[in-house]
Amino acid sequence: MSESFTLSFRPDISLTLEGDRLTLQSTSESLTLEHPKPGLRSALEQLLHSALTIAQLTALVVEADGVEAGLDFEADLQKLIYLGWISHSVLPLATAVPIAENYQLITPVFDWQQPLTLSRFAFLHQDNQQFVLESPLSKAKIILLDWRSSALIAKLVQFNSPFTLENLVETLIDAEIGQSFLKLLIATQMIPLEPETKALAQWEFHNLLFHRQTRSERLDDLQKSKLPRFEDREQLGVVKPPMSNRVIPLEKPALAILAQTDCSLTQAIEARQSIREYDDLPITLNQLAEFLYRCARVKEVYNLEDNPLNMGEFTKRPYPCGGGLYELEIYPVINRCQGLNSGLYHYQPLSHTLHLIADKHEVEVLIYDAWKATGQQDIPQVLFIVTARFGRLFWKYHAIGYGLILKHIGVLYQTFYLVATAMKLAPSAIGAGNSEQFGLIANLNEYEEASVGEFSLGSLKQTNDNPS
Ligand SMILES: Cc1cc2nc3c(=O)[nH]c(=O)nc-3n(C[C@H](O)[C@H](O)[C@H](O)COP(=O)(O)O)c2cc1C
Question: What's the 409 CA to ligand 1 centre distance in angstroms?
């Protein structure tokens, strides 16, 4: 299989020679060879250019250093391939660049008459002025070097007239090169030879892509994650600047007294449930204030002593957050609350204040959407719309950033649930919301900050089981 491909180092890998010492350097690791023999040295230098196959490289080593050295070289090359340091090319069409470790090209047994189609998980996109084929099933990204490779890929999605090697000759490229290109796509799992398993069939394209991209870091992301400085302080400060000067100061609850009177953790966890029916007497401003204080206030602002990235200040809050960066913002939408006018507010967790940003008539649509999502039971008295200021995380947690935000939403929801239970309020998470609509009302740039979660809250119906 690999005889069809020429080999080269992954583009970020450099080779330096100092005297008799040869060093290979990737973004995260380096490998030094003392006194490399001439054949080995020349083969490694060839790997900077992607012109030779494994057999040709090994022949170079054998010719200069002997047969045994050739065998060692082949074994070492396999280790480099496994580490993801080696790209495979079919010139002039394409190069497969590893994006994950434990890299292996799959060597399939197949019949050239077999119809071939591109995997439904494969996708093409422009990256760094290159046309790149990727798939969450593949540990490689295929850089298309020539327009004919894009044309061949277009052929491979024509399910009605499936592509076989025989059709190739009619197309644009020398049959042998075309065959090697197909082999590369098969070896990197861009073309499946087997039907999808039941387990794979249940995956939507975007779910599998998101899963793969947000679990472990890709080899080609390591470069990016050499952390940039935390530059845009103004916009990405530790708390969002006040959004309006129509300020509602909030009471702070006496935590020492609550620590004596609250139900136990076990009782809170056991009693917690999603409740979408409310008492006629709505939640009060003081309850809302206590709820926000206990769930989401800034407890402390501090500086890291060892802060080489110049990241500015950090905060401590009641719920945990990756990197302590706290990107989530809470916007209470008030429908019915004793002591507070209806409308859209932003919660300032440092000053523990609410800032009115839109009046009731502008936000009715948000309440309506939430009501629909809760099965049209009682209309939520308070709806919390939670946004993320993406930049607070993305500069550091590049590829896993969005996944991390969703984890933070989960963490905040559970804090909301438990505090609401302890306070004898009626909480419910809401699984969907309209980010675009909210962005328009709150005047947000969707790529800087957008809603990522919704949660409803209200007063608990007074019954014999729920005395006030
Ligand atoms: C992430 C998440 C999303 C949810 N979305 C909704 C929703 O859109 N509408 C709703 O009425 N309940 C929603 N719920 C509440 C669940 O329906 C509820 O947690 C589940 O039925 C279990 O009931 P319990 O919370 O009373 O134990 C959601 C819960 C979570 C954790």
Answer: 13
What would the two tokens of residue 257 be?
Answer: 């007294």
Which structure tokens are listed for 314? 């950090």
Q: Whose CA is nearest to atom 17 of ligand 1?
A: 274
Strand order in the sheet with 14-18: 14-18, 21-25, 30-34
Distance of alpha carbon 89 from alpha carbon 294, whole angstroms: 58
Residue to probe by mutation, ligand 1, list 272, 367, 408, 430, most atoms within 8 Å of CB: 430
Per-residue model confidence as pLDDT tens digits over 219-232: 887 666 555 555 55
- Name the residue type at position 418: L
Tell me which residues have their CB closer than 6 angstroms to ligand 1: 273-274, 276, 373-375, 413, 428-432
> What does CATH list as the number for 247-459?
3.40.109.10
- In this structure, the residue with its CA closest to atom 19 of ligand 1 is 274
Ligand 1 center from residue 453 Cα (angstroms): 12
Residue 69 pLDDT greater than 80, yes or no: yes
> pTM for the whole thing?
0.89
Stretch 455-463: mean pLDDT? 94
Q: Are 417 and 355 in contact (CB under 8 A)?
A: no
Domains 2-89 and 91-221 fall in the same CATH topology = yes
CATH 3.60.21 describes domain 91-221:
no
Sequence ranges of the domains in the chain = 2-89, 91-221, 247-459
Centroid of ligand 1 to alpha carbon of 288 (angstroms)? 21
- Tens digit of pLDDT for each residue in 196-224? 999 999 999 999 999 999 887 788 876 66
Check whether domain 2-89 has CATH 3.90.930.60, yes or no: yes
